[in-house]
Amino acid sequence: MYRPPAFREDRIEVLHQAIVAYPIAILVTSGACGINANLVPFTLRSDAGERGLLQAHIAKANSQLADLRAGAEALVIFQGPQAYVSPSWYPTKRLHGKVVPTWNYVMVQARGRPVIIDDPDWLRMQIDALTGQQEQYQPEPWSVTDAPASYIEGQLKGITGIEIAIERIEGKWKASQNHPAANKAGVVDGLMAQNPLSPMALIVHSLADSKA
């Protein structure tokens, strides 16, 4: 991933926090039929190994399963907040006009070799973990046990588990760090004018002390 120094993020705890906050990722593999990519929700075991362990499941009918079974390296792309940045938000536009539009975004890329798991107990554990992770924010959380056991057993027969021990992980936080303080403030104001709860505005503000 292209990462100018101002935008690099390598702190493992920050990368893990982003994965947990934005767990649906693009799973990219390459095989006999070329490059394959699918959106897949992951859970993360941050305590496993040096860089963490990603766990997920996909449908057995998914053609990407053949690539995963082959054991070649997989790329998992997690995307966090993103926002278009208008040059009209920069005070320096009025000074010299040497500004252009850009896009701010957060991205984490993890790489590792997938392991396929067909064990029903593991699959149940994974869907319990994934469901619990997401349902905790609901006013009336749904549990896997709310559905008939026979129905869940039937659903499990149609999926296959995936584990990816993270071998390499890197992040990119592109949040106007390469601009002077006045421009950063202008970006925060512009984003908040569009959405007072803008996640990217918060990120730009939190990184405002970074070297311009």
Brief characterization of the structure:
With 212 residues, the protein is an alpha+beta fold.
Task: Set down the secondary structure blueprint.
Blueprint: E1 8-9, H1 12-21, E2 24-31, E3 34-41, E4 43-45, E5 53-59, H2 64-70, E6 74-85, H3 92-95, E7 102-112, E8 114-117, H4 120-135, H5 149-156, E9 159-165, E10 168-174, H6 181-194, H7 199-206
CATH architecture descriptor text? Roll
How many individual domains?
Answer: 1
Q: Let me know the average pLDDT.
A: 95
Element pattern in H and E: EHEEEEHEHEEHHEEHH
Overall SS class: alpha+beta
Per the CATH scheme, the topology name is Pnp Oxidase, Chain A
User: Which CATH class applies here?
Assistant: Mainly Beta
Strand order of the largest sheet: 1-10-7-6-2-3
> Helical region count?
7
- Largest beta-sheet characterization: 6 strands, antiparallel
User: What's the shape?
Assistant: elongated
Helical content (DSSP H or I, runs of 4+): 25-40%
| Termini gap | 22 Å
CATH superfamily: Electron Transport, Fmn-binding Protein, Chain A
Low-pLDDT residue intervals, each spanning 5 or more residues: none
- How large is the radius of gyration? 20 Å
Strand content: 25-35%
What is the number of strand segments?
10
